[in-house]
Amino acid sequence: MLYAKACLIRNETELGKDSRLRYLLNLVYVAMLTCLSPWLLYRAVFQQKNRRGWWVKLTGKVPSRTSDAPCIWLHAVSVGEVNLLRPIMDQLSNRISGCEFAISTTTETGYDLARQLYPNDRVFFCPFDFTWAIRNVIRKIRPSLLVLAELELWPNLISVSRSCGVPVALVNGRISARSFEHYLRFKWFWSPLLRRMTSLGVQNEEYAHRMEALGIDRQTLQVTGSVKFDGANINPENLQTQQLRERIGIQRDDFIFLAGSTQVEEDLMAAEVLSRARESGYEVRLVLVPRHIHRSQKLKKMLADRGLNVQLRSELGEHGNQDVFATADVLVVDVIGELSAWWGLANVAYVGGSMGKRGGQNMIEPAAYGVPVCFGPQTQNFRDVVQMLLDQHAAQVVCSENDLFDFVRSAISKPQLAHQMGLRGQQLVIRQRGAVARTVSMLEEILSSEKSTDLPRDANRHAAA
User: Which of 63, 123, 260, 358 is the least crowded, having the fewest Cβ atoms under 10 Å away?
Assistant: First the structure.
């Protein structure tokens, strides 16, 4: 009881100290939203983007949770983070009896995937970082714990949650060199916020050292490893992959060049590589999985203008259409949630988002299947993973169309060498597993700790936060 009273006094003190900053942030957010409203309207009307979830984003009024079971609120920005949460939730469900989950996302693609993966859990768009919206979500779902994936830091989300007695944890945390420079420059702002978090699970020691440099107590930090290694499927004979093979009509002797999570310039580059491979006498099929599926129709037209027969995955239907695909040069996968299974069908893989400023996408999944993997030079989002793959000669950096063509041609003409590269990547992934178990143990410790159980969880108590 004494500890609980001390926590209440501390929270009230922090509440007064933070309230002015919170309201200042509210004003900044309103001003930004007002200035951006013409652009947001244009995107909604002409680009069909960001059209859903505005009521929840602005108010935080999600459907109320009625049970008294423990509830964990997990926030995932987009598709990658939504996939990342799956093995964590599976283990938490097995280890915490009756636990309920609430999953919030920022993007529409993330929302759609979360609805697909977690049909029995509540899924909603994460509200904007307004104090009233965050409080409303907490009132409605009454979370026992808020879990943030990777490093999604919103000041009011963290501050209001803690003032309402909700512990906040970071899982699979990472902080790139560029982000670290930003946080260090504004350490006076970010350091107090980070210190309010209950526990931070980071992927490696380098990230832990950066957190310490920002003033985080080492006792709050845990090096858990990367959850993405645990979540990657290593069996190409898994059910979803084999269902795709049968539905689409892919034969065992087809050579599939798969470019995934691509930007438009990477799609065009892959198409040129396909054409060059065909001209060289190689029988190659190209599967493109663009990062943003809303541009699939435009992509189909662009490739068709280059003389390629293009088929959209969505046009094949749920049960596929083998006759149609058999005549296609390129298949564009324009449905959400299939990329992981598609990697298992590839003979050679290019991981997109790595030629421009995006910083690369997840290359662990194709490597886990034993597929020879290549990617562009801009992979700062996965720098540690890339270094491990390169150190083991389990992947290759390609800097141009010529490099990519050479990589694909080598995989066709030297299948044994390609197989060995893929096998090294798969073995690396297997050795790195274990992050999910460490992450779940960290979250269980928070939930069972005296600190977490004694802090008040009634958001109404801090209605003025």
Answer: 63
Residues 453 and 358 in one domain: no
pLDDT for residue 323? 64
The parent domain of residue 384 ranges over 239-431
User: Helix, strand or coil for residue 292?
Assistant: coil
Q: Which amino acid is at 247?
A: R
What is the rounded CA–CA span in Å between residue 82 and residue 75? Answer: 8
Put simply, whether the predicted model's pTM sits higher than 0.85 gets the answer no
Cα radius of gyration (the chain): 23
Q: Residue 359 domain-assigned?
A: yes
Contact by Cβ (8 Å): 423, 217: no
213 touches 207 (CB < 8 A): no
CA 219 to chain centre: 27
376 vs 354: CA distance, rounded Å: 4
Helix axes 79-95, 435-448, angle to 10 degrees: 60
pLDDT digits (tens, 9 = 90+) for 193-228: 999 999 999 999 999 999 999 999 999 999 999 999
The list of the chain residues with pLDDT below 70 reads 1-18, 47-48, 317-324, 450-465
Q: How far is CA 24 from the centre of its chain?
A: 30
Total count of domains within the chain: 2
Residue 376 domain-assigned (yes or no) = yes
CB 329 within 8 A of CB 309: yes
- Please, what's the b/e burial string for 139-149 (b: 16 or more CB within 10 A of its CB; e: otherwise)? bbbbbbbbbbb
- Gap between the Cα atoms of 443 and 245, Å rounded: 38
Residue type, 4: A
